[in-house]
Amino acid sequence: MIEDGAVLCEDGIVAEVGQRAAVSFPPDALRVNAGGGFIAPGFVDIHVHGGDGADFMDGTVDAVRAACRAHARHGTTTIFPTTTTGSPAQLEAMLAACAEAPRSPEGARVAGVHLYGPFFAEDKVGCHPLSGRRDPDPAEYGGYFDTGLVRVATCAAELPGAGAYYREAAARGCLVTCGHSNASWAEMARAFQAGMRHVDHFWCAMSSIPSVSERLGTPMQGSMAEFVLMHDEMSTEVIADGEHLAPELLEFAYRMLGVRRLCLVTDSSRALDLPPGEYRFGPAEGGELFWSDGRVGRQADRLASSVAGMDRMVRNMVRLTSAPLADAVRMASLTPAERAGIGAEAGSLEPGKRADVLVLSRELEIERVFVGGTEAWGSEMLTSVRSSTGAPDREVCQ
C-alpha cells in the first residue's frame, strides 16, 4: 500500500508508481481523480466461462466480446476464456472465436485460453454436459495446442493418457492443472512428475479422502487437497462468491496456502449481470440447463458455476477472512498472472508493465477500468483535467 499514491502511464505502459509528490507527471498529463479511493492493478481471471448472456463455448466472436465487456465492468482486465465439455467442433469454434476477438479488442484482454473441459472424470463432471466428456487423445488435444492459444490446461489425473497430456501441456508452456477429478495421492504424484502444478477450484468437483476410499477401498489414501497442501510448488484457486465456500474454508485456504499459491477466480457463467432465471451452462446448443437466483447458479441441489465478477471475490476475501486488501488484490491479479506465465507484463502496477489499472471506491466497488491505458469502463465518466497541480489524495495497491 502506498499512501497518497499516484501512477503515471505512458503509451499504455506503467511508467512510474509512488507517492504523488515523487511522481514526475508531465505538465500536460491527463489526470484521473481517484476520489480518495484506491488505485489497483487490473484483475486476472484464469477460470471463467462467460457473462452477460454469453458463454465462450457459444463459439462466436460476439459471445467472446460480450463476456469480455461484462468482466471488465467487474475489474477483470486480463481473461483466459475457459472451455466446458463439448464436441471437438464446439471446442474448435471456441478457440477460433477467441483468436479472432482480440483483433478488435473490447473489455478484458484475452491472454490465452484455459482448456478445461472435456477431459474430466466421469463421476466428477459437475454441471458440465456428460455427453461431451472424454479421455484425452493426442490426436485431438494436439490440434488445440497447435493453435498457440492454450495457456492453461486441465485434465483429471486418473484418466488414461493423463500423463502424456500433462507432459505435452508443460512442454507448450501451459499452467498444467488437475480438475474435475477423483484422483488419489498416488495419481497426483504421477501427475506432478508429468508437470501438473495447479488444482482447479479447491474443494469443488475434486477428490476427498472418503471419495478416494469409495473408489479404491482401504487403507484410506490422501486426495487432491492433501497433495496440494503438502507440496509448496502446487497452487490452487477459490471461488469466493460467498456461495461456493463458507468463510472458514476461505480463511483456511488463505492461511494454509498463502498469497503466492492461492488465486481468486470467478468460474462465472453467462448469467453474470443478468436477472434470476434459467440459462444454459456451456454452449448455447447442447449446454446443461441451470437456474440462477442472482447469487449463484444451481442444478437441483448442487451448485452450477458462479454468477459473480472478480470484484465480489476481492470484497469477500477482505470482508470474510483475515486477508488484508493488498493480499486480496494480489490473489486476483499478480498471483494468477504469475501462475499463467504473464507476470512480467501484467498483474501489478510496476514500471514496464501494461497499464491495466482500476479505480476502486473505499468500499471496493469498481469506479473506472483502464485496459492498456485506455478506459474500458467507468461508473461515471468523470471529467479529466489537464493540469500539473491539484491531484487528489489516493492510495495505490501494487
What does this protein look like?
The chain has helices at residues 61-72, 88-100, 138-146, 162-171, 185-193, 209-216, 224-230, 247-257, 310-320, 325-331, 334-339; strands at residues 5-10, 13-19, 30-31, 38-41, 43-48, 50-51, 54-55, 76-81, 109-110, 113-115, 150-154, 175-178, 198-199, 235-238, 262-264, 277-281, 288-292, 296-299, 302-306, 357-360, 366-371, 374-378, 385-386, 395-396. It has two domains: 1-41 and 355-398, Roll (Urease, subunit C, domain 1); 43-346, TIM Barrel, CATH 3.20.20.140. The chain has eleven helices and 24 strands. α1 crosses α2 and α3 packs parallel to α4 (162-171). β18 (296-299) and β19 form a beta hairpin. With 398 residues, the chain is α/β, with parallel strands linked by helices. The termini are close together.
Q: Name the CATH class of the largest domain.
A: Alpha Beta
Number of strands: 24
CATH architecture of the largest domain: Alpha-Beta Barrel
Low-pLDDT segments: 381-393
